[in-house]
Write a structure and sequence with these properties.
By secondary structure, the chain is mostly helical. It contains three helices and two strands. InterPro entries: Uncharacterised_YfgI. This is DUF5384 family protein.
Length: 189
């Protein structure tokens, strides 16, 4: 231990006014050289112990600091995971809303197509009904014209009958007149 300290350090320790030795001041001039060496050894041991205590305290402070840093990092990681989970959840909700919107839009468009088909079907049925009724109107018109034609034909027949009856009547009247003007000596033909 003396070799490490060196002779100058030994003299400096001897001539110092007060040196700490386990918390007590040593007299500057100890009785013997052995006492001085022993005192210096105790001082060095005390300094080594103090250095070790300081190192331990620094290590503990460093360990506590590292623990705080690690705790902060864990908290930051947890917060980052929570934010990421929230963003992911928000993205899922947004995607679900988009999916629901697309589905609602498809359903709406399908309903519009069905309504359009129903409108076209109704227009077609109306056109068919009009066509059927127009056939009925055409048939009714043809029946009316036929009945008018039949009526005209019947009138013509009646007129013809009357004409022929009138002709016969006139002929008969003519014959009767002729017969009345004839003389008894004339023939009957």
């Amino acid at each position: 231990m003396l070799k490490k300290i060196g002779f100058n350090s030994l003299l400096a320790g001897c001539f110092c006014g007060a040196v700490l030795w386990e918390g007590q001041a040593l007299p500057a001039f100890a009785q013997t050289a052995d006492d001085q060496i022993e005192a210096l050894g105790h001082v060095q041991d005390a300094q080594d112990a103090q250095r070790l205590a300081v190192q331990r305290a620094q290590q503990e402070a460093h360990a506590k600091s590292q623990a705080r840093i690690a705790a902060r990092q864990r908290a930051a990681q947890q917060a980052a995971r929570a934010r990421a989970a929230a963003r992911e959840k928000q993205a899922r909700v947004a995607e679900q809303e988009k999916t629901l919107d697309r589905q609602a839009k498809r359903e709406y468009e399908q309903a519009l197509r069905e309504i359009e088909i129903e409108k076209k079907r109704a227009h077609l049925e109306l056109d068919i009904a009009k066509a059927k009724h127009s056939e009925d109107y055409v048939k009714a018109d043809l029946d009316k014209k036929r009945s008018e034609t039949d009526s005209v034909s019947a009138r013509s027949e009646a007129v013809r009958s009357l004409s022929s009856g009138g002709q016969h009547l006139l002929e008969d009247a003519g014959k009767a007149t002729k017969m009345s003007q004839r003389h008894w000596w004339e023939s009957k033909d």
